[in-house]
Amino acid sequence: MFGKHFLLEHGKKTRLDQIDPNDTGAVYDREQVENDIQRLQERLEALQNMLFAEKKQSVLFVIQGMDCSGKDGVVKHALGGLHPQGFKAVGFSTPTEEEAAHDFIWRAHKAVPAKGMIAAFIRSYYEDVLITRIHKWINEEEAKQRFKHINRFEKLLESSGVKIVKIFLHISKDFQLAKLKNRLTDPTKRWKFDKSDLVERESWNKYQSAYEDIFKQCSSASAPWHVVPANHRWYRDWAVLQIAVEALEKMNLAYPESDPELDLILEKL
User: Fold this and answer.
1) Which one of 10, 45, 88, 251 is separated from 180 by 20 to 30 angstroms, measured CA to CA?
2) Backbone torsion region of residue 70, taken as left when φ is above 0, otherwise alpha when ψ lies between -120 and 50, otherwise beta
3) pLDDT for 67-76, tens place per residue?
4) What's the predicted TM-score (pTM) here?
């Protein structure tokens, strides 16, 4: 099971500085895994078809990572082959006035995929124990309470048939800087640059520590965290595809039993 390579051990302290964001295992370039990427994409599409037909379960991908880690890219390239009729990507940025008037999980809960559907959260309810904590908009006691709320929320989803797949895209600080510079020098990408990214970058170490705390506090046997080295985009996409396929294969998906009357209809044709 290749996906286990990225799986964090439940309840164990994780040190991100001990995980190499450049790691690609024994693989050196995309050409070596091109055929496997194609195989995984086809398998994921087949599994999605069963999920959609069965309509008993759903899948929620929670994609987190530092700015420039490739959250949008992994949805586009690794999950982009999913049929749009059964898939949606939801981005979470600064809460709207309506969202801010509710509890912090409200906006995420209403975007949870229905049975038979797949959703990818680009950022998520975890932002409410990240940026809020870093900037001290909530105190440590509130943060602990939010961890508990998140764990209960995920348990609720699991009991309702939602498979939660949590993925952290791990990049280096130097890699992020190179990407930010590229956004400024490339006219087609300059629109993506936000001055606030530089402000958040100053808190790099604090964010790393906050993520490590999330991995420890908000992980379970059924909804663990995966840390994917993401300095190499092709490896990131290959790894996420592996994780996605393995997650859906564990769901024991199956097509619904056909109506016996259909056989009679076939005989008459």
Assistant:
1) 88
2) left
3) 999 999 999 9
4) 0.93
